[in-house]
Amino acid sequence: MVADVEKLITDPADEDKVPCWAEIWPAARGLSRWIWDNLCFDNEELLELGAGLGLPGIICGLKGARVTFSDFNPSALELASLNATRNGLANFDTYLGDWRNFGMKKKFKWVMGSDVFYDPKLNAHLINVIGAVTGRGSNLLIAHPGRPATFSFIQDLRARAETDERRAVIPVTIEDPYFPYYEIHIHLIKFK
Questions:
Q1: CB 86 within 8 A of CB 80
Q2: Is 64 left (phi over 0), alpha (psi -120 to 50) or beta?
Q3: Are 138 and 168 in contact (CB under 8 A)?
Q4: What is the 3-state secondary structure (H, E, C) of 131-173?
Q5: What are residue 101's phi and psi, to 5 degrees?
Q6: pLDDT digits (tens, 9 = 90+) for 89-125
Q7: CB 46 within 8 A of CB 60
Q8: Could you give the maximum distance between any two Cα atoms of the chain, in Å?
Q9: I want to staple 143 with a disulfide (CB 3.0 to 4.6 A). Which of 27, 64, 89, 161 is the partner?
Q10: Cβ neighbourhood burial of 179 (10 Å; 0-12, 13-18, 19+)
């Protein structure tokens, strides 16, 4: 983890320079727990969008997935790689890409995003990314702490594609004096 996230902020007015990638967010914790308890991967390929430090992707790797960690910040990918290696993963890749011009055309059986569908401006690009990297039979895992923009994203996605959806809510408690408790919404969306 990053010892002092505040030191990484170079321009708080520029959203691209706020190091959201440098913390393990409650949604990543909830998604990781849900994956550990509910999924196994049979060497299936998985793309983690906005991987940050890589916790959910690492859990998927430990459960048998071949993970590609993606982020637009090279430092995030460096730390996700370090964390993956420290946790015994050898079969993973990284992809440096900005959702506004992602460029990846490879299809994945699994795509995952943990608390990344929060900004309607970026969600307009993310819906295109999801369309480019998924196909019939692909699965999309989304985790968030009840964000309205994420629910809207899922509604827009379901209007564009025929899907099945399974939902869960996972309680997460963190050490924070002001916001210690979260209910993390998990969406497992399968494209028909």
A1: no
A2: left
A3: no
A4: HHHCCCCCEEEEEECCCHHHHHHHHHHHHHCCEEEEEEEEEEE
A5: -160, 65
A6: 998 999 999 999 999 989 999 999 999 999 999 999 9
A7: yes
A8: 45
A9: 27
A10: exposed
* Residue where the block lists tokens 């989304």: 142
172, two tokens: 């997460």
Angle subtended at Cα 49 by Cα 62 and Cα 7, rounded to the nearest 5 degrees: 95
Any idea what DSSP says for residue 45? E
CB < 8 Å & 24+ apart, contacts of 161-169: 161/131, 161/191, 161/192, 162/191, 162/192, 163/189, 163/190, 163/191, 163/192, 164/189, 164/190, 164/192, 165/189, 165/190, 168/34
Complete domains list, the chain, with CATH:
22-191 (3.40.50.150)
The backbone region for 140, taken as left when phi is positive above 0, alpha when psi lies in -120 to 50, beta otherwise, is beta
Structure pTM?
A: 0.91
What confidence tens digit (pLDDT) does each residue in 109-168 have?
Answer: 999 999 999 999 999 999 999 999 999 999 999 999 999 999 999 999 999 999 999 999
